[in-house]
């Protein structure tokens, strides 16, 4: 674990350090205290550069609004504001104690409190640390540094109570295990196992986002193992029980990671899982395209060239082929169709014919079939001009009559 000096260096190297410093000095100059809080302190102690620098303070949301020109109310009733300084968007939250969590997600009420009380309402000990920017010392009220040294995920206080407050924390424990390569502490894992079914109460959007973070972590297999051990996998994705092997295959987008996760799902399991995660129509379609190609790759390669070239424009199809290439499957076939597509340049050509050319000549589905056929011939370079395409159309119509 990094020393206080290393923590300082990592924090100062963050691109938003200047904005944090400006906010800190403004708060202190007006009689308030302010600490860095949560994940950024954890990451700095681990020698990692944090994604965000968050501030915790005893200034209330109203006081924060009055001190800074640009603020965003993202959760004022819970003491959470965002302050915009020099283009940086910094979360500034008031120390608080939470009331009951009747909806399993948010406290019904909050009371603004002290740093120690604020630390004790957080989810895991490693996320409940503060860094005093004045003394440049870590403030640890929950033995989070010990758990960092021991590389364990442990709830603050009683695990069942923490998970009852917000059931997403059940899945967050698995995600942090994957992200940090930490083990889940025994009592915390026991509570997760006893309460696994409660994760069904979490919204699909929140499960989707948490799974997205887990699947892009450095140790995805460990996160999947925790999901299996705790029963979370059985509750959310029962068809994937016992499967922990993972290869990211260069995935960058959420939908790409999810496509790999669902690759071996049955059609009903795929539909149920994608429905649970509340994906955008675009992402869901791309995942379904990838899944379909992986189920029967031979069917794709037996299609005619024009059809394959058009299908390559679909994100899911292109990604599925990338994965097959990495697995060294169908390499000559994939390289051949990609070469044919590349020969057209950055994009496929505009079709020689349009609906206007067949208007009144064909009816219903015959219009689409005709235009599709002539475009495939164009992509296959059997038709080299609009004139040739019109001649083909004339013969096609004559043959049909």
From TrEMBL:
Its cofactor is Mg(2+). Residues 34-153 form the Poly A polymerase head domain. Belongs to the tRNA nucleotidyltransferase/poly(A) polymerase family. It comes from the Bacteria. SUPFAM superfamilies: Nucleotidyltransferase (SSF81301), Poly A polymerase C-terminal region-like (SSF81891). Pfam families: PolyA_pol (PF01743), PolyA_pol_RNAbd (PF12627). Keywords: Magnesium, Metal-binding, Nucleotide-binding, Nucleotidyltransferase, RNA-binding, Transferase, tRNA processing. This is CCA tRNA nucleotidyltransferase.
């Amino acid at each position: 674990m990094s020393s206080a000096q290393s923590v300082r260096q990592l924090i100062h190297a963050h691109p938003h350090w200047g904005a944090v410093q400006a906010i800190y000095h403004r708060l202190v100059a007006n009689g308030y205290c302010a600490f860095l809080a949560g994940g950024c302190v954890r990451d700095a102690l681990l020698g990692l550069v944090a994604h965000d620098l968050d501030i915790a303070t005893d200034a209330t949301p109203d006081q924060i609004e009055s001190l800074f020109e640009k603020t965003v109310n993202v959760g004022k009733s819970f003491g959470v504001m965002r302050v915009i300084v020099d283009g940086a968007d910094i979360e500034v939250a008031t120390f608080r104690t939470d009331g009951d969590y009747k909806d399993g997600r948010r406290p019904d009420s909050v009371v603004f409190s002290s740093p120690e009380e604020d630390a004790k309402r957080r989810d895991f000990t490693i996320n409940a640390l503060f860094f005093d920017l004045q003394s440049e010392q870590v403030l640890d009220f929950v033995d989070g540094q010990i758990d960092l040294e021991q590389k364990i995920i442990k709830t603050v206080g009683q695990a069942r109570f923490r998970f009852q407050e917000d059931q997403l924390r059940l899945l967050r424990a698995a995600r942090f295990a994957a992200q940090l390569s930490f083990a889940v502490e025994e009592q915390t894992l026991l509570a997760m196992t006893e309460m696994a079914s409660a994760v069904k109460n979490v919204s699909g959007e929140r499960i989707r986002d948490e799974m997205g973070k887990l699947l892009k972590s450095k140790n995805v297999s460990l996160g999947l193992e925790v999901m299996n051990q705790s029963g979370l996998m059985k509750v959310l994705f029962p068809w994937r029980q016992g499967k922990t092997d993972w290869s990211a295959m260069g995935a960058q987008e959420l939908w790409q990671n999810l496509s790999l996760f669902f690759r071996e799902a049955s059609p009903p399991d795929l539909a149920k899982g994608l429905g649970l995660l509340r994906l955008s129509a675009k992402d869901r379609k791309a995942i379904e395209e990838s899944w379909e190609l992986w189920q029967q790759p031979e069917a794709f390669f037996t299609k005619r060239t024009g059809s394959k070239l058009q299908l390559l424009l679909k994100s899911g199809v292109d990604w599925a082929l990338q994965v097959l290439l990495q697995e060294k499957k169908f390499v000559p076939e994939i390289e051949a169709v990609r070469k044919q597509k590349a020969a057209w340049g950055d994009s496929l050509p505009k079709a020689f014919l349009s609906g206007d050319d067949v208007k009144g000549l064909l009816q219903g589905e015959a219009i689409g079939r005709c235009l599709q056929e002539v475009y495939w011939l164009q992509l296959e370079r059997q038709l080299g001009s609009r004139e040739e395409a019109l001649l083909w159309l004339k013969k096609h119509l004559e043959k049909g009559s």
